[in-house]
Amino acid sequence: MNYNDSTKRRRRAFTRERDLVRLLWKKGFACIRAPASGSKVKRTVYPDVIAIWRGKVFIFEVKTSEKYRTIYIPKHQIEKLRIFAERAGGKAFIAVKIIGQGEPWRFIPIEQLEHTSSGNYKITMELLRKGLGVSDLMKYAGMLKSLNEYGGGSS
Q1: What are φ and ψ of residue 65, in 5° steps?
Q2: What angle do CA 95, 99, 101 make, to 5 degrees?
Q3: 37 noted as active-site residue
Q4: Which one from 37, 65, 135, 146 is the annotated catalytic residue?
């Protein structure tokens, strides 16, 4: 990989992170893209995106793919995400966007990730398809009610 390929890849990653921040902001979250995310500083424990709604903290590592496929994630990325979530008292997710297919963002709690034989993590295509949508995050945060919560009576 040459310098131009690496630079283009990083720019695309930054664009996707900003897209997620804009989406979450429009939905009512206070959010920010961590300025050092994606940097080559190995000692930092910064996630890609942080979103907050009334004291509930959501921490995201952003991944993109051109198509549905198994996504592999290095162990150190998950450990850093876990540490940050614990310190913040928040919930950590992998946010995945399948590019160019009109697919919505999917959010996978890090507890659901599968281990690989090499000690890293993966998101299978099945897990990706079952991932949470943005409305699921909003329900989790308490921003939306389920249909059962309206009306007060049972049917």
Answers
A1: -150, 150
A2: 120
A3: yes
A4: 37
